[in-house]
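Quick one, T. Sequence first:
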Amino acid sequence: MSDFPDFEHEEDVLTEGDTRLEKPPLYKVLLHNDDFTTQEFVVFILKTIFKRSEGEAVSIMLKVHNEGIGVAGIYSYEIATMKADKANYLARAQEFPFLCTVEEE
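Structure tokens:
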């Protein structure tokens, strides 16, 4: 008798059709308006952390300024939280009350 399992009679065989990969959920990084953070700083954050062009950054900044909130980008959870944390850290270093949050799309 062999110490190896008998694979010819195995009933629980996983076939290729049984596996299904799902895309991970995406998360929005939101920028919140306040009365003290400068518009230039918000544009800087959008260009450096979120890799937005000058035009995109200004457009998003104006949306945040006029509507109170704007989407900086949509990413996987890990990337979204990393970018939000980095933006919040840079704001605190410059003594701005800027707030960047993450929510599921």
